[in-house]
Amino acid sequence: MSQVEQAVSEITGRAVTRVRRLGGTACAVQLDDGRTVFAKSAEPSSVAAEAASLEWLADAGAVPVPAVHGHDDRVLVTDHITAGRPSPRAADELGRGLAALHAAGAPAFGAPPPGGPADAWIGLAPMRNEHTDTWPEFYARLRVEPYVRLARDAGDLSTAEAKIITDRCERLDEVPAEPPARLHGDLWSGNVHWADRAWLIDPAAHGGHRETDLAMLHLFGCPHLERVLAAYQEVSPLAAGWQDRIGLHQLFPLLVHAVLFGRGYAVQAVAAARG
């Protein structure tokens, strides 16, 4: 029996009858009672962070996320959500749900989910969460600067390019001040799972600025994005000029991608910093 099968059996209390690989370390696991659950293996802090993130998002009661069945040090087990097709109705619901999720708030900028580790992950990159007094301090110190250093040390950013990005972080006060929002934290289109509704998966949740989640949706395209944003605005209008700040909020995911995938994303981050 594999590590994943053993963990799923222990967590669910059921025997495993079939395992179907979904890519990477993710599996759809069929149980002897006919149910299918989702399982993925990762580093212990990554498993703990994702489990806490899913539970924190679920507590808001705003947007559907897979229920957590449990986890051990290496394997997380959640509901398995059968994929469907994006629909305008689901997009409208997603926009309203994101507005409510963000409004559920967080204790501070940089706050991790309750019970979640301070040293978390975004995808395969480490991500530090700690309470911070202001959004500019949080975004510069914990979201931009660590990845600038990693990309520069790897040779994917030159010293001059790194300075362009860090100089941009000296002007973060132009972003309208808002209370800390409860963010998904890694809301690119691949983490919107379209089924009967739009479900959110693979969160890297923390307290942040709500414009960051929406900027991530823009980064790689999202089905029916205009409808998502329109529905969001009906519930919780964004501050004037938010479209002009999309690139600023995309610095964080672009730099993470630069660290994981190299120079091409570093060039995009420099362009975003230049505006």
From TrEMBL:
It holds the Pfam family Fructosamin_kin. Keywords: Kinase, Transferase. Coiled coil: none annotated. One of its GO terms (molecular function) is kinase activity. The keyword Amino-acid biosynthesis does not apply. Belongs to the fructosamine kinase family. PANTHER family: FRUCTOSAMINE 3 KINASE-RELATED PROTEIN (PTHR12149), PROTEIN-RIBULOSAMINE 3-KINASE (PTHR12149:SF8). This is Fructosamine kinase family protein. It comes from Saccharopolyspora taberi. The lineage of its organism: Bacteria, Bacillati, Actinomycetota, Actinomycetes, Pseudonocardiales.
